[in-house]
Every structure is written in C-alpha cells, then in structure tokens.
Amino acid sequence: MSLAESTTTPVPTATAPTPDAPSGGARPGGEIPYGLFLDCVHCGLCTSACPTYVTNGDENDSPRGRIYLMRGVVDGRLELNDRVRHHLDLCLDCRACETACPSGVQYGQLIEPFRVALRETERDAGHILDWFHRWILFGLFPNPQRLRRALLPAYIAQRLGIWKLLQWGRATALLPQRLRALTEMLPPLRPSRCAPLPEILPAKGRRRARVALFLGCVGDAIFRHTHWATARV
Asked: What average pLDDT does this structure show over 98-104?
C-alpha cells in the first residue's frame, strides 16, 4: 500500500472536515481554505492528464493523490515526512489536471501555497539547502544570463564533437548523480542569435485575443528559438 492508497484503488472520497482539522497555520497548508480540498471528489479523470502519474503509475503522484496527502497533513492524520514531500515535490505544477477536472478543482490554489508553507517550515526548522539546490536550482536556473554563460562550454563542446566523446568515454559518470542527470537531458544547444522577445508582439491583421507566453528561465536560455516560433504561430 502506498501513502494515499494503492496504485489501483481510487482514493476515498473526501468527507467533511473533522473537529481536529486546524483552522489556522499550525500545520503546513493550514491557511488554505479547507473547502478547496473538499471540491475534489476523487473521480480520477485527472490522472490521464497528469504527466507524473502517467510516467510513474503511483496514486501518490496523481493530482487526487496529492490532494489526499495535503489534506491528511492539514488534518493531522498524516506525518509530513520525506516520502510525502517527495510526492509533492514531483508535481510539475503544469495544472493540466484543472482542465480535465469536471468538478472545477482549483489544484493550483492548493499545491502552490502548500509548497510555500513547506519551504517556510524547512526554513523555520533551520533546514540548510544542499549544494545542488543552493547553487544550481536556486542560484543558476532563475538567472537566464548566468545560465547562458554556464552553458557556453557545453555549447562549444557540442560544436567540436567533444561532448559525444565525453559521453562515449563515460567521463560524465564522474559527475555527481544529479549533475550527470542534467547533462544527459541537455538538448543540442544553438547559438543565442535570437533577440529577446519584446514585452508585446503586435498582432498580424485584426487582433482577436491577447495571449501570454510564459518564457521561464531555463526555457529562455535554451529554447529561445522555440519561443519565437511559438509567438509566430
């Protein structure tokens, strides 16, 4: 059995709040309106839209499973341990589940403040980020200019064929595991010839709508040409 339920049995339907359910911020997520948890009827129609559930097949990695986990922590029925954090951290926050949900569950209004509460809990407990989170996830990725400079050696190595040689010789196996995983996912890099997208691109012809394009941090550094192609489409 997994934390929320087995991977084959649907998570039980949410019931009314128990008397022990906190009304304040005593536990992570305690300040989230409790009714948002109850909107989920655990029908499972969101699971096919969730990339982590489709990949892992674990109920805890589905939207309804994560809602069940968060509600269990808020109710005090479930300990906020590393396993629970792991399943919540795997969420990509793509919110594709919201478009598939017939009940109109506002999943983003649950997972986002809950994650903020988790970080605040870790900070209050004196939790120190490891080197990967401190220097890579939070120090490098949010800064596109810094990330582009860091990717320059990889771009040169790809252009000269050194990158394939390093992979063939398994030199990347000497890297720490998480850095090695990043190098394996690194796509072919292109020279940064595209200018940054302007704040507003005027419509070609009659304007029918206004669309926002989220550039991201890693995306703008690696896939700027894709952003321009998306804007043209």
From this structure: 93
